Amino acid sequence: MPPANPNTISHDRKTIAGLLGGIFLIVFLSFGPVLFAEFLNWDDDTHLYKNPLIRSLTPANIKKIFFTPINDIYIPLTTLSFALEYHFVGLKPFVYHLDNLLLHLGNVGLIVLFALRCGLSRWAAALGALIFGIHPMHMESVAWVTERKDVLYAFFYMGSLIFYHAYLSQRRWGFFLGSAFSGFLSILAKPMALSLPLVLLLCDRLWKRKWDLRVLLEKLPFFAFVVPIAWMSYSLNARMPGGEPVSSVLIWIWTFSFYPMKFIFPQDLIPYYVLPKPIHITNPEYALAVLFFSLVVFSVIRLRTQQWFVFAIGFYFVSIFFLLRFDDLGDISIVADRFMYLPSLGFCLGLGLVFDRILASLKRKDLSLRILTYGVVSIILLFLAIKTHLQARIWKDNLTFWNYVIGQNEMIPRAYNDRGVALVGKGQYELALTDFSQAIRLHPQYIKAYCNRADTYLLIGKMDWALRDLNTVIQSDGRSVRAYSMRGLIYGKKGDYDFAIRDFTRALELNPRSAKDYNNRGVTHKKRGDYDLALRDYSQALQLNPDFYEAYMNRGAIYKLTNRIELAAADYTHALRINPHSVEAYTELKNLPRQESDENTTLRGLGPTE
User: What is the pLDDT of residue 193?
Assistant: First the structure.
């Protein structure tokens, strides 16, 4: 039978509002340090500050957002949220972190509403939502701007569940459409919303609906939009077991057990985990995982009549199932705290229910026992809040973040590489070179570390050392666009123009949409005196990237050299529109030979702004 109408639920609204206010305050204080964090060089560049898709809200660019996966993940709504922020505030980290935290608070509030509609008491709902709100495993999803997709998809996901309950209670199709539309927005924010139709079936069971044809048919609209949209990401990332069958099963069981075990004992939380080695049952980590998995299976069989226990386990499994791995990806992390953000919901509400029942059962018992129990629950909540607050501090900046990761595990090549990039940004080149070299020692085929080390050698004038690294990369991986691009730049600096053009051409064969390589090849053609070829390359670069300041300046210089003054003026004007503070563009425009044309009169009215 469907759950009771929410309008008949006799909860004291003032009490609930007071509880929510207290929960919001505790959660806000626990996560407070993230508001002062910077962007990280851990995917924030790809998703945000180096992502050209967020720089414009024109209809054409919004269309491009909805047709372009980021890092092989289809998350257009998340990218659009970044574009809106960029439009209004630019790249101010505080605003992006604040919005992530506000979305997290919104999710906590929606969880309270959902729990009440599931029949939990206001205290159980509040406890469950508070555990969700302050659990340190959720720090990654809130503190990391890139993981906007977690808090955003969860917000619409919870909205879909609440609308679905309203539909069952009032039998109004408007609520069903609201549930479907919220689910649609959720899958546009992150592919993990793929689990929504399965979770709706779990809710049907929790709310004691009889599974029949009608119940199944209701889920078809959700499957109709969830599956094809999620497939756009999963088809690019799905992997099949490739190793020994026993090893594959052990890895799958380990990943299944990893999340609830970390949820119960949130110690040693690291943003970047590696698979335990060796992959064998004699390894204590795998033995413990098998034991835990067996206990879960036994408990589900034994407690299958306990609605909330089954719901909690079921919610976790159907939400995380698509991220459980079979294969060893080497140094690539196959588990992450952020994957547990919404899948932990059932566990949080289950704990809230257990704590509430324990506390309620002690109301008429010995006072000292009641005080002890309240004290234990308070200590658990205080531990979670303090752990979360401390965990928030590691997201302060790149160096703090990667120092923490390396302090937890000194065998992660990516941590040394990305810390090296941060050190380069601070001008600490020798320390950066040490980190890149350590990354290469740990992972001798680490292409990105070789390229970063070569880049750093260039910054300190060691071109031959940079060439050595780039030659190593190209010999081991003949498809590294970055290596060819960088080597082309070095050859250009050394005056070996034929070799430079050859490398830029090879880079463009591998990536025909690289505006940067067209521009660099154009520069090399100009140095050789091949102005027509240079113009062709600059024009192609601008066709690929209409906001390419350097390409406009370079093409304008060729037009000036060849006495095509109006075209030169137009290019310098475009450059000024892209970078209004450019003294160089303003000076070039001002110093062009004067021509009597209305266009030039207008162009000469532009200038750098203070």
Answer: 94
Alpha helices in 32-58 (DSSP H): 44
> How many whole angstroms separate alpha carbon 389 and alpha carbon 219?
40
Q: What is the predicted pLDDT for the residue at 153?
A: 97
Q: How far is CA 132 from the centre of its chain?
A: 20
CB within 8 Å of 411: residues ≥ 6 apart? 274, 442
- Distance (Å, rounded) from C-alpha 392 to C-alpha 29? 11
pLDDT tens digit sequence for 527-552: 999 999 999 999 999 999 988 999 99
Q: Yes or no: say if 452 and 480 are a contact pair by the CB < 8 Å rule.
A: no
The CA distances from residue 357 to 344, 376, 379, 572, 574, in Å, are: 20, 14, 18, 72, 68
Q: Count the Cβ atoms, other than its own, within 10 Å of residue 564.
A: 15
Residue 401 near residue 394, CB atoms below 8 Å: yes
pLDDT at 595: 57
Contacts with 9 (C-beta within 8 Å, 6 or more apart), sequence order: 116, 117
Question: How far apart are the C-alpha atoms of 305 and 309, rounded to whole Å?
Answer: 9
Query: Token digits for 392?
Result: 């928030």
* Omega prior to 278 cis, within 30 of 0: yes
By 3-state DSSP, what share of the chain in percent is helix, strand and coil, each rounded to 5? 75, 0, 25
Do residues 139 and 33 touch, judged by C-beta distance below 8 A? no
Stretches where the chain sits below pLDDT 70 are: 1-11, 237-243, 330-331, 363-365, 595-610
Length of the chain: 610
Task: Report pTM.
Answer: 0.87
The continuous run of DSSP H or E covering 66 comes out as none
